[in-house]
Write a structure and sequence with these properties.
Blueprint lengths: L4 E7 L4 H11 L5 E8 L5 H9 L3 E3 L8 H15 L3 E4 L8 H6 L4 E5 L11 H8 L3 E8 L9 E8 L6 H24 L3 E4 L2 E4 L3
Parallel strand pairs: 1-2, 1-4, 2-3, 4-5
Antiparallel strand pairs: 5-6, 6-7, 8-9
């Protein structure tokens, strides 16, 4: 039998992208196993989603540590202990330290609600609106030491409409996120992603 990749998702809040991955694992589209939800927020709705899906949860509560160093030490230990092959940052709202980034280079991806390299960081959808962009979208990328700068795996775009506000635009982008993230995870699980410098090559099935 072929080895099924082990997937861990790291999320801070609502967890709709986590849910999209869980759903596509359970319908067989992603040939992998979701082994863990890790969250820094004990009130994250993602926890309920994990419980409903029978996925183990690790809460590494940022506020229970004296500082970022101790928090990241505990996070790293939890990540190691999960035994995951792939870590997905799905609405993880903190910047990861270099040690973790280096340790999981090439096997950690992030979903961002903008067409990178435009509008990195927080409130990406609002940034796109404020800038007057006519096209917005989402990016799934491997994580490197920069903020939202790693090699791009998949991007999907949506129009920005004249009457958009942040919520309407975010909803339209989110719908694309829920397709793009499972697609990137599927490609990873099929060993079809090859990183060549800044370029991610997608190998044929
Ligand atoms: C998503 O839109 C994701 O792209 C974004 O947070 C939202 C999380 O939603 N991530 C970032 O902005 C990271 N910089 P979710 O919890 O429902 O998946």
């Amino acid at each position: 039998m072929t080895y099924m990749k082990r997937i861990a998702v790291i999320a801070s809040g609502r967890g709709s992208n986590f849910q999209a991955v869980v759903d596509r694992v359970s319908d067989g589209y992603i040939p992998g196993t979701c082994v863990r939800l890790i969250t820094d927020n004990p009130n994250a709705y993602a926890i309920e989603r994990a419980r409903n899906a029978g996925i183990p949860v690790s809460v590494v509560d940022f506020s229970s540590f004296p500082g970022k160093k101790e928090y990241e030490g505990a996070l790293l230990a939890t990540m190691e202990e999960s035994g995951a092959d792939l870590f997905i940052l799905a609405g993880y709202m903190r910047i990861l330290g270099q040690e973790i980034v280096h340790r999981y280079s090439g096997r950690m991806m992030n979903i961002h609600p903008a067409l990178l390299p435009s509008f990195s960081g927080l409130h990406a959808q609002r940034q796109a609106l404020d800038y007057g962009a006519k096209v917005a979208g989402c990016t799934v990328h491997f994580v490197d030491e920069g903020m939202d700068t790693g090699p791009i795996i998949i991007q999907r775009c949506v129009p920005v409409r004249a009457d958009d506000d942040e919520e309407r635009l975010s909803t339209r982008i989110l719908q694309e996120e829920h397709g793009a993230l499972p697609e990137a995870v599927k490609l990873f699980c099929e060993d079809r992603l090859m990183i060549d410098g800044r370029t991610v090559c997608v190998l044929p099935p």
